[in-house]
Amino acid sequence: MTTFTSNTNDNNSDISSLRYPVICIDGPSGAGKGTVTWRLAQTLGYQLLDSGALYRIVGLKAFEAGLLNVDGEQSIDETALLALTQSLQIVFEPNIDSGRVDIIVNGAKIGEQVRNETVGGYASRVAVYPKVRQALLKLQQDMASQSGLVADGRDMGTVVFPDADVKVYLTASAKARAERRVAQLLQAGQAADFEAILATIKARDDRDENRATAPSKPAEDALVLDSSNLDADAVYELVKKHCQDQGICFNR
Ligand SMILES: Nc1ncnc2c1ncn2[C@@H]1O[C@H](COP(=O)(O)OP(=O)(O)OP(=O)(O)O)[C@@H](O)[C@H]1O
Ligand SMILES: Nc1ccn([C@@H]2O[C@H](COP(=O)(O)O)[C@@H](O)[C@H]2O)c(=O)n1
């Protein structure tokens, strides 16, 4: 990767102000962030940050460590949660077959279980804790230090990469997102209850959008895109056009 973008338009700026391009794709669960993020990263040859996976890992490990009660909403021991978060060495490896990253934690590959809705719920419960978010911040920011980056999450454009070159907030109605989840589960040969999935999506949205720290919301300078009535190709083309308008070069 040889493309640099500058933080400033000042021609006299020195090399320390140069950095790689960052594209942020934020939005709620099931909006299609992962799909467009993967395609952008593949097309541009950029790294991919699946920040939701970080919170999913912390949530899963916290559950396994007995820090989460299964049903309730009681608070979690934040000191223990921080220690657990700091003990995790997390690496992403792109997996062409799945169109997602594989997640390696402390040297061991994590199974697909981490992607399920139960673990999504664990993730959103640990994600409210500022110390957890702080502990994951540098790891995320460091991913932009060696190549361009496409970052998928909730607070990429607002907190993690406030100076990003491109910010998109990709959303869709809860109904459309629940329908996509149902289709995804059925395609994988799993059972799917639309009403239960819709309720879970709404509960997760509520927690993510109303937490005190880094709530899920569009950055002030984000393009807000509603994908409820757009297929994945149409979303990609609109996001690509926006990236080009912001100076990202698609020459591959
Ligand atoms: N525009 C679209 N129209 C219809 N289905 C879509 C669209 N974009 C993605 N999908 C499908 O919807 C499902 C969810 O997409 P995806 O995983 O990209 O969402 P997400 O926003 O990353 O969700 P999460 O945050 O929970 O990981 C997938 O099955 C994907 O193939
Ligand atoms: N930047 C982020 C990304 C995710 N979260 C939390 O993790 C949950 C799982 O995210 P997915 O994108 O994998 O569905 C999500 O519901 C958030 O609670 C976050 O806080 N910040």
TrEMBL record:
<feature type="domain" description="Cytidylate kinase">
    <location>
        <begin position="23"/>
        <end position="241"/>
    </location>
</feature>
<dbReference type="GO" id="GO:0005524">
    <property type="term" value="F:ATP binding"/>
</dbReference>
<dbReference type="GO" id="GO:0036431">
    <property type="term" value="F:dCMP kinase activity"/>
</dbReference>
<protein>
    <recommendedName>
        <fullName>Cytidylate kinase</fullName>
        <ecNumber>2.7.4.25</ecNumber>
    </recommendedName>
</protein>
<keyword id="KW-0418">Kinase</keyword>
<dbReference type="InterPro" id="IPR003136">
    <property type="entry name" value="Cytidylate_kin"/>
</dbReference>
<keyword id="KW-0808">Transferase</keyword>
<keyword id="KW-0547">Nucleotide-binding</keyword>
<dbReference type="InterPro" id="IPR011994">
    <property type="entry name" value="Cytidylate_kinase_dom"/>
</dbReference>
<keyword id="KW-0963">Cytoplasm</keyword>
<dbReference type="Pfam" id="PF02224">
    <property type="entry name" value="Cytidylate_kin"/>
</dbReference>
<dbReference type="GO" id="GO:0005737">
    <property type="term" value="C:cytoplasm"/>
</dbReference>
<dbReference type="GO" id="GO:0006220">
    <property type="term" value="P:pyrimidine nucleotide metabolic process"/>
</dbReference>
<dbReference type="InterPro" id="IPR027417">
    <property type="entry name" value="P-loop_NTPase"/>
</dbReference>
<keyword id="KW-0067">ATP-binding</keyword>
<feature type="binding site">
    <location>
        <begin position="27"/>
        <end position="35"/>
    </location>
    <ligand>
        <name>ATP</name>
    </ligand>
</feature>
<comment type="similarity">
    <text>Belongs to the cytidylate kinase family. Type 1 subfamily.</text>
</comment>
